[in-house]
Amino acid sequence: YNNLPKINGKQTISVWAKYTSTPPSTPVLVSIGAPAGNAIQLLFSSGKPTVGKYGGTILVQSPTIPSPNVWHYYSYTYDGVSHKLYVDGLLKATSSVAPNTGTPTIFNIGRSFPGTFHFNGYIDELRIWNRTLNPDEILLHNRSNLYFYGFNERSFFINQTKNDGNGLDDGTYTYFAYASDLSENFASTETRTITI
Q: How far, in Å, CA of 2 to CA of 143, rounded?
C-alpha cells in the first residue's frame, strides 16, 4: 500500500469493466481505504458510474448509465481540488466535494471493504497513478490496447485522432512503433508514411 496515493492526494484511477445487466445497488469496482472508514471508491450507484467516499457520500457521478454487454473504460482523477469522472475517455462529471483523508491500508478490486458490495461482471487493466492524468492522456489510454494472444504473441492497437470531433488534417504523416521489455531489449518498425 506504500505506493498508493493518499485518499485525498492527487491521483488517477482507471479500469475497464463489463457487465451483462445494469448493476443494482452499489457494486464497487475499486476501493482504496484507510483507517476509521476513510476511503475512495469507484462504483455504480443506481447504475451510474460514481466515485464516492466510504459511507455513501458521492464525490462525482456520471449522469448516464453505460450500456451492458460492452467493455467501458472508467477513469477518475483528483488534482487536490476537482474530482473528474470519465467514461470511455470522455468527461462526464466534475465536482469539488471534499474527499476523505488518510493513507491507504486496504485495497479491494470488485468489492468494498470489508468484503461487501461485490461487482458482478468483468474487470480488466486496473491502473492507479499518484498524479492527475490530463484529458488527452485519459483519451489515449481509452483508445489504445495491448492484446496478449500467447506467450510470445502480442499486438498493440491504437485509434488516435486529432481530437474527438475532428480527424487529422489532409497531409502526409510518418509513424513507427517500438517496444521494449523488462530487460531493456528494444525493437522498432521502420518509419512508415501515410497520406490523408
A: 30
CA–centroid distance for 120 within its chain = 18
Q: DSSP string spanning 14-81?
A: EEEEE-SSPPPS--EEEEEEETTTEEEEEEEETTEEEEEETTS-EEEE-SSPPPTTS-EEEEEEE-SS
Tell me, what DSSP letter sits at residue 100?
P
Q: Which three cell numbers stand for residue 37?
A: 472508514
Q: What DSSP letter does each residue of 146-176 carry, written as one string?
A: EEEEETTEEEEEE---SSSS--PPSSEEEE-
> Residue 142 has which C-alpha cell?
481509452
Query: pLDDT tens digits for 77-134?
Result: 999 999 999 999 999 999 999 998 888 988 899 988 777 889 999 999 899 999 999 9
Name the β-bridge partners of 32. 40, 107
